[in-house]
Amino acid sequence: MNSIGTHFRLTTYGESHGLAVGGIIDGCPSRVALDFEAIAADLRRRADGAPREEEDEVEWLSGLKEGVTLGTPIAFSIGNRHARPEDYARLEHLYRPGHADYTYEARYGIRDHRGGGRASARETVARVVAGAIAKQVIAPVSIHAEVDTLGPEGDTRGGTVVCRIEGLKAGVGNPIFGKLGALLAHAMMTIPSAIGFEMGAGFAAAQMSGSEFVDRWNGDGSTRTNHCGGVQGGISNGMPVEFRVAFHPVVTLPSEVECLTDDGRLEPLTIGGRHDSCQVMRAPVIVEAMAALTLADLMV
Amino acid sequence: MNSIGTHFRLTTYGESHGLAVGGIIDGCPSRVALDFEAIAADLRRRADGAPREEEDEVEWLSGLKEGVTLGTPIAFSIGNRHARPEDYARLEHLYRPGHADYTYEARYGIRDHRGGGRASARETVARVVAGAIAKQVIAPVSIHAEVDTLGPEGDTRGGTVVCRIEGLKAGVGNPIFGKLGALLAHAMMTIPSAIGFEMGAGFAAAQMSGSEFVDRWNGDGSTRTNHCGGVQGGISNGMPVEFRVAFHPVVTLPSEVECLTDDGRLEPLTIGGRHDSCQVMRAPVIVEAMAALTLADLMV
Amino acid sequence: MNSIGTHFRLTTYGESHGLAVGGIIDGCPSRVALDFEAIAADLRRRADGAPREEEDEVEWLSGLKEGVTLGTPIAFSIGNRHARPEDYARLEHLYRPGHADYTYEARYGIRDHRGGGRASARETVARVVAGAIAKQVIAPVSIHAEVDTLGPEGDTRGGTVVCRIEGLKAGVGNPIFGKLGALLAHAMMTIPSAIGFEMGAGFAAAQMSGSEFVDRWNGDGSTRTNHCGGVQGGISNGMPVEFRVAFHPVVTLPSEVECLTDDGRLEPLTIGGRHDSCQVMRAPVIVEAMAALTLADLMV
Amino acid sequence: MNSIGTHFRLTTYGESHGLAVGGIIDGCPSRVALDFEAIAADLRRRADGAPREEEDEVEWLSGLKEGVTLGTPIAFSIGNRHARPEDYARLEHLYRPGHADYTYEARYGIRDHRGGGRASARETVARVVAGAIAKQVIAPVSIHAEVDTLGPEGDTRGGTVVCRIEGLKAGVGNPIFGKLGALLAHAMMTIPSAIGFEMGAGFAAAQMSGSEFVDRWNGDGSTRTNHCGGVQGGISNGMPVEFRVAFHPVVTLPSEVECLTDDGRLEPLTIGGRHDSCQVMRAPVIVEAMAALTLADLMV
Questions:
Q1: Residue C237: how many other CB atoms lie within 10 Å
Q2: Contacts A12 to C, Cβ<8 Å
Q3: Neighboring chain B residues of C175 at a CB cutoff of 8 Å
Q4: CB pairs under 8 A between C and D
Q5: Min CA distance, A6 vs chain D (Å)?
Q6: pLDDT > 80? residue A51
Q7: D54 has a pLDDT exceeding 80
């Protein structure tokens, strides 16, 4: 569904070429004086590197009194800019390779074919707004994500993002099905194009011996290494929480591709207009947002 | 918490050295004639390779009428065998490196120190029982997991497991926060020792070019490659769903290790008794169980 | 919190004197061609009898394609009219008797004091919109509520509303904690001023003998009486579902009342402006909306 | 479904004539030294007045260490005594009037016909155990319920129970869909035979004038009357929380009744054995248990 979190819960809405995208945050603590400039700064980080200028302005519909949270739902809305919807007319009966056109049709029997509709990365703007608020809720815990690796110079590129959470005390997270690593994995794998997740040493840990892997104690409860990524048994141990997310390359290719038609034929298509050849540079702020939402849900 | 799933929900209970481990399945469809031999076979797969003989017998407490599901909660219990609990007395005030001793203490201020308590892999026996039932619920969808790679011959080893789901029609899963890949990532990362997850081409996809990565259509809606792992926009596309899980090495080392004491000192410990040096051989049936629980929750 | 329902879930937002009230419906089935006139008609029923003209216009933000549901979240917004907010300045430090001023302050340490803020009956406009959609989803099941009794002619009045659901087949609802009567009770008791709920014969049933109360079978599975209100063991039995809701009188009195100040004094206040002396005439459409939301959640 | 609560969650299981009934409590705070005698005393109150001796012994399966809660799931089991199951053979194809036989069959297509199966009041034993623990968690808040009225001396009787919660501070509960009165209504209407619920003055409030109904302030934040039942806008105001629950008469009549057969005929049946003619005397401890579970969920 379209909600994440139990106590600090974000519900998002909106299609890329509908009237607006946005969300409702339910469970935000009261009496937080929001730093709107920090929210705007995160929105600019998300827009960075985009070929289209996107200056997203947030309309705050509820939940605030003179910029201070009331404890009631914070609803917000960001208007979409409808750049030539007629460009999309020919996509109504085509399923592009690598996109969610075909699967949405299978799931719902209908879809908004304009620019990816609900499946568009446009939806992440609501996550970044909510994530920027979540960061303020969990302060002084801090979250920093950055591009780790970029894919090769080809037509379009993917890459990996590394994220580090500092200041989280030991004891956050839950055993069994509510493990911190599982919640982060869930949150990260909901980001468009995310295709892999690892905590700490991750896949490399599978090729270590036990004595290489196990993090030895210092006398103060910290550890000399952090191969486990700051989480044991699903619960934070007081070390920085570290993880990586892999993103596959952008699936809108600059060259001609074969689409499947809704009557079962293959048809060539060259997608015009300007499109990103790499979205990994925009991903760290989204990774941070999803990490902040995950932690806020555990900490409020 | 200790539940997973919304419609087909498993709640587990039990410490490794308490009276029993088990669970309640709520939301299982009625009128399923359970194949108890299939459940026993999965329990034997879980016990395989274990240095201790574990023949787990399931006591069925509710929800069945002559072996057929009633639609009411299926509660089950598996007794524990208390092999010399006195062995654990010295662990009461020690936090072993790499284990959840310290984090449980930070989270709850108390823990069952005997054999890992709630954090023990013993808990997965309840998952395997419930997963075996879930497999029967989602049939004819089939799930097969196996060891993919094993870590090097050292003191203890980890490895990776690959899983393939066949027979799943297009249209299963949800957009945004309920993506199939995210639900699977969550489910897999709740398995003890899991430290990484990837769908389809996974981390390797981050180093592909777009034209290499994008799965081309065949005329029948299938694709020539399956780099995305059978999921697009969070929804199955009718191709096999494929993913990998990385497990770190066993953290109970055969050699002496330094433990942290609960009064802040370091103290050497050599853990006696027989312990697995590798649990990856037991992991495929648990991976299958968690995949089956994830799918049953989407399909009932 | 501010959500109701698991499968067909409504989340509402908005303070009475903020920018807007509205909601997100998550889980609405796809391909429902909405009848917008029916939604407007229900909104007019809610406004009927109100001393202030309220013509509520719904702005649809997402989830629709040419008036047809996409299966994605339906977000909507209804603008508020800010009739002289300065009227409310003196309420900032006063807790009116019978209102939620004091309890919101106790819960959140802050509140929007203008016109009841989040606690205002203004919020029910979002429920009526969502309920009108839910009615279309559950058709041909039909819901009809009407005023049953009105309180005496005094300063302000309460009353009771009776509701009857027809066309619901046997087998809807859940045992134990998900009983249909319990879900309806929950839904109804969330309506502002609701103070009592009864199924079928209700409180009168407590004074019947068993042979008077028990509904005898007809040969076709229907019953000769319907004292149980169409539900047995939490599950519908195919008879009409019938229940009553009691509403206490409007708590904004026309005469002078003593308020508690936030520094612990009593201070007289005469609330000016036009206020309803009875809201029970507006309640049936809200009762229907909450019943429709409850059923849609069980039937989608 | 079979769970109630979000933070302090009870899941129950068991049919009346199966092996056992019981439950799992998830979310119980750690380090509560349970008072087992208080639990046994509540179980005896539940058994009081029953024609059959029922000494329920609780088997604790998990979540405790020397009687102290670990913060992990507390699973418990109470064995059933199978008094002559052959008595029930003739009920396999009959739907008794007033019972849930017909509706369970409509819902699931199968049922345990022995003694009410899952729909039996036997299930409430698990609620009483969990409720007795919840009372200890919310202390020093205290809950007292007692029989308010009894139905007339006829074949079988119903009645009403009144409940009063003391020591609850102002600020507990949630606005809108999480109102304390709505949560209590939900909880109470899940009790077998419950058919009505009212807060404070309840249905009588619908016939009061506003100036009669509104609770006037004392200078200390308490009120001179408590017609609202201690809750305003869904949130406690610091006054005692008061409510009533109506129970319909026992539906197992001592005289011959006509049952519906599963092939659509009417067939007379006289139910033998000893059966309660009134269960209202056993209801107060169940009402208290459900109130305690509701509050624990809001307070942990």
A1: 27
A2: 73
A3: 72
A4: 365
A5: 9
A6: no
A7: no
Q: Is the pLDDT of residue B148 over 80?
A: yes
Q: Does A110 touch chain C (CB under 8 A)?
A: yes
Q: Do C72 and B6 touch (CB under 8 A)?
A: no
Quick one: tokens of A143? 């979250």
pLDDT at D154: 87
Best A9, A70, A125 member to test C by mutation, with max C CBs in 10 Å, is: A70
* Cβ–Cβ contact B116 with D under 8 A: no
pLDDT digits (tens, 9 = 90+) for C175-215: 999 999 999 999 999 999 999 999 999 999 999 999 999 99
Q: Interhelix angle for B124-138 vs B36-47, to 10°?
A: 140
Q: Which residue of A has its CA nearest to D6?
A: A6
Q: Residue B192 has what pLDDT?
A: 97
> How far apart (Å, rounded) are the C-alpha atoms in residues B146 and B161?
6
The one-letter amino acid at C297 = D
- Quickly name the fold that domain C3-252+274-299 has: Chorismate synthase, AroC fold (3.60.150)
**Beta strands of chain C (E only): which ranges?**
3-4, 9-13, 20-26, 58-60, 64-65, 68-69, 74-79, 94-95, 142-150, 159-166, 194-199, 231-232, 235-236, 241-247, 257-261, 266-269
Give the pLDDT mean for D6-16.
97
Residue B205: name the closest of D103, A196, D117, A268 by CA.
Answer: A196
Query: Of A233, A275, A234, A222, which is closest to residue A83 (Cα–Cα)?
Result: A275
Interface test with B, best of D2, D92, D122 (most B CBs within 10 A): D2
Chain B residues inside the 8 Å CB shell of A169: 106
Check whether B167 has a pLDDT greater than 90.
Answer: yes
Cβ-contact A35, A137 below 8 angstroms: no
The beta-carbon neighbor of B11 closest among D22, D24, D110 is D24
The model's pLDDT over D67-109, given as tens digits with 9 standing for 90+, comes to 999 999 999 999 998 656 667 888 899 999 999 999 999 999 9
In the prediction, which pLDDT does B51 show? Answer: 56
Domain ranges in chain D are 3-251+275-299
Tell me which chain A residues have a C-beta less than 8 angstroms from the C-beta of C71.
107-108, 110
Contact B162, B229 (CB under 8 A): no
pLDDT at D49: 60
Nearest to B175 among C6, C72, C175 (CB): C72
Which residues of chain C neighbour D185 with C-beta distances below 8 Å?
182, 185-186, 188-189, 197
**Where does the pLDDT of residue B115 fall: very low under 50, low under 70, confident under 90, or very high at 90 and above?**
confident
- Chain A residues with CB-CB distance to C110 below 8 A: 30-31, 65, 68, 70-71
- Nearest by CB: A1 against C26, C30, C61: C26
Q: In Å, how far is A72's CA from the nearest CA of chain D?
A: 8
Please give the model's pTM, rounded to 2 decimal places.
0.97
- Structure-token match 């009794």, residue found: C149
Q: Which residues, listed in sequence order, are joined to residue B267 by a DSSP beta bridge?
A: B259
The chain D residue lying nearest C3, using CA atoms, is D177
Say which residues have a Cβ less than 8 Å from residue D77's Cβ, sequence separation at least 6.
Answer: B61, B77, D20, D21, D22, D58, D59, D61
Q: Any idea what DSSP says for residue B128?
A: H
Question: A63 CB near a chain C CB, below 8 Å?
Answer: yes
Backbone angles phi, psi at B212, to 5 degrees: -70, -40
Q: pLDDT-based confidence at A54, cuts 50/70/90?
A: low
User: Please, which residues bridge with residue B64 across strands?
Assistant: B69
Query: Which contiguous run of DSSP H or E holds residue B59?
Result: strand B58-60
Distance CA D28, CA D71 (A): 6
Asked if the Cβ–Cβ distance from A175 to D6 is below 8 Å, we say no
What is the CATH topology of the domain spanning B3-251+275-299?
Chorismate synthase, AroC fold (3.60.150)
* Whether the Cβ atoms of residue D290 and residue D188 lie closer than 8 Å to each other: yes
